[in-house]
Amino acid sequence: MIGSILKSLRKKHGYGQDYVADRINVKRSTYANYERESREPSLALVIELAKLYDISTDYLLGHTASKNMPEDVQQLIEKYDKLSDEGRIRINNQIECELRVDALAAEKRLEKQRQGIEASRQAGKQYGRPKATITADWNDTYNQWKAGDITADDAVRKLGISKATLYRRARTEIK
């Protein structure tokens, strides 16, 4: 969905792919992949694209039909603009306070999660994928692969592990 929105916006503004790619500091081919949806832009690039086209990130991501900020946010900004300097200071202080409270609550949740995970580990629970078991023929297969007698694909088939596991295990062998 983001690809069609990007293409539509680019054409509406009369920009070429080279221009947009240059503005967001990526290669033209990378930007073209965003429009074809064979690749997704990072969050930072989504923000840069939204700034370039003067639209909300929600619109760019297809979450809203409105190109600009939601109505309730716009109303809050209008109310904020009507405040005196003292009123703005109070609102800013209140927002800072709420952010600190939210951050502390998030920190407490993370700590409880850490404690729960640690208690589970001590009880013998395994999280994530189980570690790959390395077969007895690891050394022979590893040496064949390092000598170039077999490919990495052949080695992973023979050992029954993923390429990532092969490379990770090979790095530990080198150390």
From TrEMBL:
Assigned keywords, A-Z? DNA-binding
Query: From what superkingdom does this record's organism come?
Result: Bacteria
Is DNA-binding set as a keyword in this record? yes
- Which ranges carry the HTH cro/C1-type domain? 6-60
Q: Which GO terms describe its molecular function?
A: DNA binding
Kindly give the CDD domains that the UniProt entry links to this protein.
HTH_XRE
PROSITE patterns on file: HTH_CROC1 (PS50943)
Q: Does the keyword Calcium apply?
A: no
Record SUPFAM superfamilies: lambda repressor-like DNA-binding domains (SSF47413)
PANTHER family linked to this entry: HTH-TYPE TRANSCRIPTIONAL REGULATOR ANSR, TRACRIPTIONAL REGULATORY PROTEIN-RELATED-RELATED
Q: What is this protein called?
A: DNA-binding transcriptional regulator, XRE-family HTH domain
Question: What is the scientific name of the source organism?
Answer: Selenomonas ruminantium
